[in-house]
Every structure is written in structure tokens, then in C-alpha cells.
From TrEMBL:
Family matches, as Gene3D superfamilies: OmpA-like domain (3.30.1330.60), TSP type-3 repeat (4.10.1080.10)
Localization: Cell outer membrane
CDD domains referenced in this protein's UniProt entry, alphabetically: OmpA_C-like
Name this protein carries in UniProt: OmpA family protein
A molecular-function term among this protein's GO annotations: calcium ion binding
Annotated signal sequence range: 1-19
Main location, first listed in the record: membrane
Organism: Maribacter aquivivus
OmpA-like domain ranges (all copies): 581-696
Pfam families documented for this protein: DUF5723, OmpA
GO CC entries: cell outer membrane
SUPFAM superfamilies (alphabetical): OmpA-like, TSP type-3 repeat
Lineage: Bacteria, Pseudomonadati, Bacteroidota, Flavobacteriia, Flavobacteriales
Amino acid sequence: MKKVVLFAIMFVASLSVKAQSYIGYLTDNYSGVNGVISNPANIADSRFKTDINLVGVSGFLANDYVGVGYSDLISSDFEYDDDAILSLSDNNNFSGNVDVLGPSFMFNVGRTSSIAVFTRARSFVTGNEFNGESIDDLDDSIDESQDFLVDEGDFFAAGHGWAEVGITYAQELMNKEEHFLKGGLSLKYLKGFGNAYVAGRNVTIDYDADGATLPNSSTIGTLESTGDLIYGRADDYDDDNYDYEVPDANGFGLDLGFVYEWRPDYKDYEVTGADGEKTVMKDKNKYKLKFGLSLTDVGSVNYKGSLMDTYNINNTITQDDYDNIEDSDDLQNLYTFTQATEDMKAGLPTALHFNADWNIKNNFYLNFNTDLSMRSAGENNLRTANVFSLTPRFESKWFSFYLPVSSYQYSGLQVGAGLRAGPLYIGSGSLISTFTKNEIQGADIYAGLKVPVYYGQPKDSDGDGIPNKEDGCPKKAGPIENNGCPWGDIDGDTVMDNEDKCPEEAGPVENNGCPWVDTDGDTIMDNEDQCPDEAGPVENNGCPWADSDGDSVLDKDDECPNEMGTVANKGCPEPVVTAEVQKSLNEYAKTILFTTGKSTLKDESTPVLVDIISILNEYPNANFTIEGHTDSVGSEATNQQLSEKRAKAVLQFLIDGGVSPSRLTSVGYGESKPIATNMYKDGRQKNRRVEINLAQ
């Protein structure tokens, strides 16, 4: 049975190996189109105008069954049985790959998206849950004729080779100040080259060194086995004529990824064009921290008309039968054999990738990466080996150097080194540990050539922060607002046009480059007008005269500017004719004397009338009535006429003395309003009078 197991394992292993690829190099921001392997979002906002990969090859192998030192391995007298170090357990595993990235290229579509087209040839081998202790016991015990029992249970091994032609689209999803997010999707057409797998179900082997007696009475060992062995493969893969034909096998796959970048200094990487639109520098890494998450190799290849061989090994055979096993025909003679033809689906080695990158300072970075298999162990399941890597690196446009320190499932801790120098990239995730460890359980290596076309720093000849191709005046520094040109002074008033509110009319600096105007039309320019929006005389600095008390007499003419008055009284309130004033007037009036029987004023009345004029002028807005009265001597008609003439005589004197005639009226009452009896001389004297009364 050992030959069956070993034959199957070696057959699958002959397909070559697959797991992780380009360890260390894919953490580089200058990995270009190669970056789609781990995360399709990588090509958006990349450092490349375009990147053309000519060829790249990566190989990887890891196992937890056998290890060997590098010096022993290259020694001419190396013996596997003596020099190999076995790590036997009831669950040994192995995994590996060869990944060839063929002609591939990427380019940008606009400012925010990118496209890549890539070709790959890949092969993969994986084995899980092998009982290494049983395999070793099987070999030793049969050779030494010792009894043993192997409880192998279930085990799996699979190999697959295929080609991919893929297209990737990546797009910026968010670019908001310090937060940046991009996503990408790869769609892949798959062409299968070959697929095979071996599986064991409930396999047990019981070896009895003296299990059978021969006719000559000697004994021989026997192997009693149970369980099933399944061997599936693409039709004609193991044709005896070795005429290889590409199988009828096709499929589709996809990769999906996202990358988030934290850019605390995002303003340092913004470029504003002459049109005012802001763009981000393409030639710079902008982040302080970057996180990537991707799911790769989702899909499968369907092999039409594949062969499924099943061996039911519930049987007991002798050691001679075991020793004579040479090929599958011998197995079919010993065990129950069935074969079926059916389509066989080979799933891709789906994996989840998480990546965190820290820009320590300038060109120095520290990267953490993990690759986790999303496939469980099972028949025809391809599984990547889980890897955790910590990679410090120096990175620049034309040169990068990496020192990945990785923990590999199955093969333990590995230390490697790699570099990128222009078009060349080369390295290994296990380079250093290969030459320093006594026990090597895994190794990898990669190398490739490409044609990188990097973004350059935008040329800015005048240093105004606007690239020449977007600068209206590339040789003269100027602000963005003026299309990169310096501000001019069209009207020559020394006020630059960007600050000149009247750029085509000369004006002083203090008026923002505009000529002074006379807004209120009062002939005083606004710069000298204390009331530029209200017309006013020059003598009041362009402001209208005020009327503080609102009496329509302007303050400049108002003798009482804070007290409402009359125009006639020069803005002051009019004096009120009181009863005392009225009485005083009439007392004066009593002393006005006339020639007997006539209306002629006597000379001695002149001082009295002058005093009356003075009193009346104290009340310029008051109107007065001059009333004439007589006694009853003579006819009534005569007395009436005499009283009227005397009243008019006084009125005329007052007018001649300066009292406005509009303020005065005269009236004669004759003898009709006596103030005393006319029977006596004293009474008649009192009745002959003139009164000056306030007009009502």
C-alpha cells in the first residue's frame, strides 16, 4: 500500500507547486501591474502612467514533513535517509506553487480610475492530513519484518495547472480630505492545463510479519487493508503515449479588493490648476497608514469528461503481492476497482488577504500582511498555506529593498530579502533563513522584468504652485485666481486689478482704485463730504443744516436751537400776553389824550404811545384791537364817528412806530360801552377812553 500512496503523491507533485507569490515585492507601491495579484484596487492612484510586465516567475514550497539543511542539500554525498530531518505527525501537510506572470500592462483612465490586462500561468499542489508516522512505519516495518498497524483515516492531495487572462478595473471611491478609499475588481478567463487529485477515506493498514504460511512451511508477511482510494484526473493526462493534448477545461474567476488610506497631510499633495480644479499628485505616496483587504481566486475550472478511479482496498495481500506492484493494472488485480467518467470541477485556491502599511518617515515603511486560505481540506480542494509577514522596506521611485520576516503554515519562520531596481525585481521570502537554518522545510524565489513608466513631479518653472501645462503664464509667478499670471494694473493707478474695484478707471488707493464721486450732488466729493449720501452746503462740510428742535428754523438761524419756537421769533417760543400785560396796556391807553371834540393826539401822549409800541413788539405774533369810546354828551352818531376816528388815530401812530398793520385792527363803539355813569364829570371822563386789547 505504501507504493499506492507514494505513487499517487509523487504523481500529483509532478504538476509543480502554488501558494504565495512575489513575497515582499507586492508590498511595494511601485509593484505596478503585479499588484493586481494580491489586490486589484492597487492600480488606482498608482505611481505609474503605465506599467508593462514582460515576464515574472515566482515559486514557493512549504511542508511540515521533511526538512534539510542547505549545506547537506548541496553536498554530493547527501543521503535522504541519513540527512533528511523528519517531523512526523498524524497530520502532515504540504503546499506550493509556480506562478508565471506573462505580458501584462496597466494604464490610467482619467484621473480616478485605471485598467490592467494580465496573463498568468499557474500551477498548484497541496496535500493535507497525511499520517507521516504511518508512512514512515510502513516503509521501515515491511523492510524489517515487524508487525504494525496504520490508522491513516482521511487524507487529500491535489494538483492543478491553468492559465489566466484577466482584466482589472480599479476606481477611486472616496477622496475627502484625509480619507481616501479605492476599490478594484478583476475578471479572469481560465484555461485548464491539467488537474488530478488523490483522496483516502477511512484507510487502515494492518501488517502481520508472519501472516501467511507458504507450502514449504515458511511464513510471509500480509497486509490487511480497509477503506477507499480515489484517483481523479483529466482524461488522457496519463496517456501511455505521452501525447499531451490541452483538455476541454474552461472556467471563470474573480478577485475583489479595497484599499483605504489615511492622509493627514493631504493638503501637501494637492495641486490646483488654472481652472481652480484640485488634483492630487500622482508621483507621491500620500498616506501615513494604508489598509488593504481583498478576496482572490474565487472561481473554478470545469474539466469535461474526467476520469474517476476508485479502489476499494478491503482485502488482505501478501508481501510478495505488495513487492510486485508496478502500476495501476497491478492495483486493479488486487482490489475492487471502478472507473467513472464525469465532469470534474477544480476550484481555485481562494484566499483572503489583509495588508497594513505604515509610512514611518520619508522612504521608510513597515508592512504587515496575512494570506488566509478560504478553502477547507477535501477532495480536489486547492489550499494556500497561511502566511503572516512583517516587512520593513526602503522604497523610492527607481529602487526598493525589502526584508520580509514571515511565519508560514507548515514550514515555520522564514527571513528573506528582495529588491527592485528600475525594470528588475528579484527576491525570496526565505533567502536569509535558507542559508542560516539547519532545517529547511520551505523556500521560495521570484524574479522578473518590466517596463515601468512613472509619473514625474509636475514641472512648475515659476514656482507658483501651478504646473506649467495648466499655467497661463508658466514663466511668471501668479495666483491661481488669475490663471497663474501676475496681477496687472490696467488703469495705472498703482492699485492691482485684483484689488481695484474700478480696474479700468484710475483712482486713489484709499478709494480701492476708484475715482472719487459726489454721490449726493452737493458739489463736494465724497472723500471730503461728511455726509456723502445727503446734500449739504460747503460751510457745513457737505451735511444739511439741522433743525434740532423741529420748529422749521434751522439751527444756524435759530436763537433757541433746542427749544421749539416760531420763525417770526427766530426759532424761540412766542411770549404769552398775560392778564397783567393786558392791564398794563390799558393803563397806558388811559393816558392817551386828544384835543377836545377832535381825534387829534396831544403831544404829551407821544411817550405813552411809544411805550405801548415797545410792549406790542415784545409779542410779535399777537394781534391787538384798538377800541375807541366816548361819553354821552352830544349826538350818538357824532360820538360814534368820533370814537372811530380816535381809534384809527392811535392805530396809525402804532403803525408809523413800526408795528405791523396785519397785527392791528381798530373799532369805535361811541357811547355804547360806558365803564362809569355819564351823569357826573368824573364818570364821563372815564368813559372817554381808548383801549388796546388782545384780539381773540
